[in-house]
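Handoff note, outgoing to incoming analyst
You'll be picking up this chain. Sequence as last confirmed:
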Amino acid sequence: MPHELTRRRFLSLSTAAAATSLLPRHSLAAEPWPLRLSTSSIHYSKLPIEQTCQRISALGFQAIDIWSAYTGCPHLDDVLTRLGPDGLKDLLAKHNLKLFAFSVYVGGYRKYAELLGKSGGGLAIQGASAPVKPAELKTRMKTFLDSLKPDLELAEKHNSFLAIENHGSSLLDSPDSFKAFTDLNTHPRLGIALAPYHLQAIKAPVEQVIAICGKQLLFFYAWQLADATNQLPGIGPTDFTPWLSALAKINYAGYVNPFMHGELPPDPMSAALTQSRDYLKTTHAKTM
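Most recent structure output, in case you need it:
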């Protein structure tokens, strides 16, 4: 997430940059784009949040996306009413997990804003409004963005960010709608959670939309249009190489989040996520 440089840090970086500029160009090797992986707690919605964190950590994921009550997932409300921010921080530290996001499709950001801030701050993900005719797109997008001002004031207060997910039959859906969003959005705490599943459903080019999002891309679902575990990378038919390359080109700073709808029993779910994790790591190594 964005952060401010202290004056001393800025001066040290400036000095280092000046010194580096004197070196031969061929000696400056660019660092490859790093792959950082998270996954969503809803994959284990029948387990308590403690066991969910334990499993996600054991699979080698670095961060977690905690879900509110979509399809009855209990995790975020349990954290809100039982663990609280200190309990959540202790739980994540125990399992060496970072908090990437709260998915608040049910309940909305305002319900969980204080919890997110006191847990260290992070990203809240929610949906957009209803679809519109193309001629009304820019006007309605501006209206929608303006409607988020109270949420963004909360995000500033609680050191958090808000990401809007694209969905079928919603305001944020087509490549044109992503362009309208990114052109009109000027708030540094607002961005996009990109779900390729829904882009594939309308045959929209995922790599093009990633490029449109640019620095406003805050969350990426590694999620393809298919059934059951075929939604996951490395199991379904989609080649994720172009998507990872597109993420590298915009220097995406968040986590790549393997995702599917439809829960399996815990052990088969872990096996499927393991396959996805290994596929993404292998693909990333080849791509970079």
